[in-house]
Design goal:
The strands form 2 sheets. A 6-stranded parallel beta sheet has the order 1-3-5-7-11-9. A 6-stranded parallel beta sheet has the order 2-4-6-8-12-10, with no helix packed on it. The termini are far apart. It folds into 2 domains: 24-120, no CATH class; 124-256, no CATH class. The protein is of the alpha/beta class. It has 5 helices and 12 strands.
C-alpha cells in the first residue's frame, strides 16, 4: 500500500458583490432590505419609537448619495447634497435625537434652488429661456450646446444644427422630449456627450438612424433604457457616436431612433 503525504487542507473562498462594485440596482436592493427590516422590527414592537418612519429618509439618503458620485452635473450635485442633509435631519428626528418636523425640507429646497442660480450666474432672461417652471415650452433651436431644465412642466425641443456639442437635460416632476433627428455631429472625433437626469419625471430623446448610442446612466426605482435599433454601417465607415450619461430616480430616460 502506498504512502500518502499528509498536508493540511486549505479552503479558499472568494466572493464579490455581483462580480464588481455596487451597482444602482444593488443599492436599491439594499434599500428594500433595510426597509423590510425596519418594518419587521417595528411590527415586533420591541423599540420605544416608530422605526418604520425611517424608510423614506433612507431611500432619500441612498438616492442622494448616488447623485453625488454618479453625475457630472453641478446642479444635480447641489440637489443631491441637499437631499443627504435633509435625509440626515429626518432620520435624527425619527429617532428623537432632535425635535424637528418634515417642514425643514422645503427651506432646504429653496436654498438649493438659490445656490443653483448663483452658481450658474444666469441672467433672468437666459433663465426663463432655458428653464421651464410650471408651464409647457416647445420650439426649434439651432444652438450647438443644449441646456434644458423642466420643473413641474414639459419641454418639447427640436434641434437643427450640424455641429451638436452636447449639453445637459434635467427634469424634476416634468418631462423633456428632445428631437435630434435633424442634428449632426461635426467634430473631428464624431463623438458627443449628453447628460440626462430625471427625478420624478421623464426624458425621451430621438436620434438619427445612423447614430451609434452608448448609455452610461443609472436608475433607482426607474428606467434608463436604450430602445434604438443599432445601425449596420458598411466596412470602414465610422458613424457618429452619442454618449448619454446621468441618472433617474422614480422616473425614466429613454432613447429611440
Amino acid at each position: 500500500m502506498g504512502h500518502f503525504e499528509q498536508r493540511p487542507l486549505k479552503l479558499s473562498v472568494q466572493a464579490s458583490w455581483g462580480g464588481g462594485p455596487l451597482t444602482p440596482g444593488m443599492l436599491a436592493g439594499i434599500a428594500l432590505i433595510l426597509g423590510g427590516t425596519l418594518l419587521f422590527v417595528d411590527n415586533l414592537a420591541i423599540l420605544p419609537f416608530d422605526i418604520s418612519n425611517a424608510f423614506w429618509p433612507l431611500v432619500l439618503l441612498v438616492i442622494s448619495t448616488m447623485g453625488i458620485y454618479r453625475t457630472r452635473s453641478l446642479a444635480i450635485r447641489i440637489w443631491a447634497v441637499t437631499g443627504v442633509v435633509a435625509a440626515a435631519l429626518l432620520l435624527l428626528q425619527t429617532f428623537h435625537f432632535i425635535r424637528q418636523s418634515a417642514d425643514i425640507v422645503w427651506p432646504l429646497a429653496l436654498i438649493a434652488t438659490g445656490l443653483v442660480l448663483l452658481v450658474y450666474r444666469l441672467r433672468w432672461r437666459d433663465f426663463t429661456n432655458r428653464v421651464s417652471i410650471g408651464s409647457n415650452s416647445r420650439g426649434t433651436t439651432t444652438v450647438g450646446r443644449l441646456q434644458e431644465a423642466a420643473i413641474f412642466s414639459g419641454i418639447k425641443r427640436r434641434v437643427e444644427t450640424a455641429n451638436l456639442e452636447g449639453g445637459e437635460l434635467n427634469t424634476v416632476f416634468g418631462s423633456i422630449e428632445l428631437d435630434l433627428q435633424r442634428a449632426g455631429i461635426g467634430n473631428a472625433d464624431r463623438v458627443v456627450e449628453l447628460e440626462a437626469n430625471a427625478v420624478f419625471g421623464s426624458i425621451e430623446i430621438r436620434i438619427p438612424d445612423n447614430w451609434r448610442l452608448q448609455m452610461q446612466g443609472h436608475a433607482v426605482f426607474g428606467a434608463y433604457e436604450d430602445k434604438t435599433i443599432p445601425p449596420r454601417p458598411e466596412p470602414g465607415v465610422i458613424l457618429p457616436l452619442l454618449i448619454v450619461r446621468g441618472g433617474t430616480a422614480f422616473g425614466a430616460v429613454v432613447i429611440r431612433n
